[in-house]
Specification:
Elements: H1 8-13, H2 21-27, H3 35-48, E1 54-58, H4 95-101, E2 108-113, H5 116-125, E3 133-137, H6 140-146, E4 152-157, H7 165-181, E5 185-193, H8 199-203, H9 217-222, E6 226-231, E7 235-239
Parallel strand pairs: 1-2, 1-4, 2-3, 4-5
Antiparallel strand pairs: 5-7, 6-7
Helix pairs in contact: 6-7
Length: 241
């Protein structure tokens, strides 16, 4: 997992271009830890397993560059600078690249997205590790229904937009219900939910919940066999039953 540490500063600083610590204090009440810490927790879990791990990502990495650079969400390959990670889309987390590059060689990552264009961009960004990735153009709900019971070690829930909150929160609840009803996480498996403490959900959408697009899914998981492992910008839930 040593190769993960090269991305520490990029992940820790990713959101500072958009939100200040003062804004976090005002809208969230504290400054949450970055994706670096929650990703690290999940990577350590995957590395602790003594079998071929299965990772599922709902909502693929879809931009060649961060939103502060020209070319964000463009399919023009000229914007992908494979040797210049400073420009990569760290404000969105770049999960597909990180978890294909920094997990054991036997791990399998399924990345799922509704838009074929997004998947094609992701294939370009993850080409060096494509032997570990299965790319799916599908709805998150359809994909989850196709999963066998107790088949997933880490599920990354990153579907929908931060704003408006309500449609994405409803989608996350439907996804959570399928996950629980079909029992698709292995015991001690992890669910990682992105953008829970996103300031824009509260500041721009006048949300009263501090859980953003996870305001329905997290309470549902906690009532149905999951416990809170980490509560930061992202939330990690662990299956306990």
């Amino acid at each position: 997992m040593d190769n993960y540490y090269q991305y520490k500063e990029l992940l820790e600083n990713a959101l500072s271009y958009y939100y200040t610590d003062d804004e976090y204090e005002k809208y969230i009440g504290y400054v949450p830890k970055s994706r670096y810490d929650t990703f690290k927790y999940c990577l350590n879990h995957i590395h602790s397993l003594n079998y071929q791990s299965i990772i599922v990502e709902l909502g693929t990495s879809r931009s060649f560059v961060d939103g502060r650079f020209p070319g964000c969400n463009s399919s023009d390959i000229k914007y992908w600078e494979s040797t210049n990670p400073i420009k990569w889309d760290w404000s969105a987390g770049h999960f597909t690249r990180i978890f294909s590059e920094c997990t054991p060689s036997t791990s399998i990552l399924h990345t799922v997205d509704l838009e074929s264009e997004h998947i094609e961009r992701c294939k370009i960004m993850t080409q060096p590790f494509s032997n570990k990735i299965s790319y799916h153009v599908a709805s998150s709900e359809d994909f989850l229904r196709s999963c066998k019971p107790e088949s997933i070690d880490l599920l990354y829930l990153d579907t929908g937009d931060v704003n408006p909150v309500e449609p994405t929160a409803q989608l996350h609840l439907r996804e959570a219900m399928i996950i629980v009803e079909n029992n698709i996480l292995r015991k001690n498996g992890l669910i990682l939910i992105d953008d829970v403490k996103n300031i824009a959900s509260i500041r721009d959408a006048n949300e009263t919940s501090l859980l953003g697009k996870a305001k329905y899914s997290i309470p549902f998981f906690l009532k149905n066999g999951y416990v809170l492992a980490l509560n930061e910008y992202q939330v990690v839930l662990k299956k306990s039953t």
